[in-house]
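Query structure, 237 C-alpha cells:
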C-alpha cells in the first residue's frame, strides 16, 4: 500500500494525489466532494484496492495540496482529471465521484465516454438550477484547506448549471451506479432518481446515511461498490 501524496503536472497545474494497490491492477479513480481532498478516501481506499485495483485519489484544483490557480469551472476540473489520467498513462478507468467530485465524474463520462469504464455517483444531484438560489457564502475565519474562490465559483454554477450538462446525460452509456444518501441528505433525492431514469441502464440504491455515505456507512458503501465493480456486476440491470 502506497499512500504518501505525490504530484503530477496536468492541464497546466500541479495535482496532488494518493495511490493504493498493485501497480498493474485495474485503475479506479476516486473524486472527493467540495472542501475535502484525496485523503477523504483514506479509510476505504485500502478495501477497494484489495479488489485488486490500483486506486487513485487526486485533490481537485483549489483543494488540499493541488494548485489553487483560480478558474474553477466544472469543465476545467473535468479537463484536469482527463489530463491527470493521461499523465499517468491511464487509458480507461472506473470512476467514483462524491458530490462535486461526482459532477466532475459525470462531465468526464459525457465528454470522454471511452475513458470511463464504469461510473459511481455518490449523492450527486442532477444539474438543475437551485430555486431559491443558494445565498452568497461568508468566508470562515482563518486558514482554509481550499481556495475560497472555488467556493464562490462552484456556488454560482450550482445555482445556474450549464444546461448542456443535463442535455448531454444521454452520452453516459457505461454501467452507472447512483447511491443516494436518503432523507438525511441535503441533496434532493428526487434529483438522483431523475438522473437514474435518464441514464441508460443505471442502477439506483439508497443508503440512509446522509450526504457522507462512504464515511457514515462505509461497510454498506463498500459492499455496493465492490459488487457493482465485480465481473458479475458489469452488465447493467
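Result returned for the query:
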Amino acid at each position: 500500500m502506497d499512500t504518501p501524496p505525490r504530484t503530477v503536472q496536468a492541464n497546466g497545474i500541479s495535482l496532488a494525489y494518493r495511490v493504493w494497490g498493485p501497480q498493474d491492477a485495474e485503475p479506479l479513480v476516486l473524486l472527493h466532494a467540495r472542501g475535502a481532498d484525496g485523503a477523504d478516501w483514506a479509510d476505504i481506499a485500502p478495501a477497494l484496492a484489495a479488489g485488486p485495483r490500483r486506486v487513485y485519489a487526486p485533490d481537485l484544483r483549489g483543494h488540499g495540496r493541488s494548485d489553487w490557480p483560480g478558474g474553477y469551472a466544472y469543465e476545467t476540473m473535468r479537463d484536469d482529471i482527463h489530463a491527470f489520467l493521461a499523465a499517468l498513462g491511464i487509458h480507461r478507468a472506473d470512476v467514483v465521484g462524491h458530490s462535486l467530485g461526482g459532477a466532475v465524474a459525470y462531465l468526464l463520462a459525457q465528454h470522454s465516454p471511452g475513458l470511463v469504464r464504469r461510473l459511481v455517483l455518490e449523492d450527486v444531484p442532477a444539474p438543475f438550477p437551485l430555486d431559491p438560489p443558494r445565498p452568497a457564502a461568508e468566508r470562515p475565519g482563518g486558514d482554509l484547506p481550499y481556495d475560497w474562490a472555488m467556493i464562490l465559483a462552484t456556488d454560482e454554477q450550482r445555482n445556474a448549471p450549464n444546461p448542456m450538462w443535463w442535455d448531454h446525460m444521454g452520452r453516459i452509456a457505461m454501467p452507472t451506479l447512483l447511491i443516494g444518501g436518503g432523507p438525511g441528505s441535503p441533496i434532493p433525492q428526487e434529483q438522483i432518481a431523475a438522473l437514474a431514469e435518464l441514464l441508460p441502464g443505471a442502477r439506483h440504491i439508497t443508503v440512509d446515511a446522509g450526504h457522507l455515505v462512504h464515511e457514515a456507512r462505509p461497510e454498506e458503501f463498500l459492499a455496493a461498490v465492490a459488487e457493482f465493480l465485480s465481473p458479475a456486476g458489469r452488465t447493467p440491470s
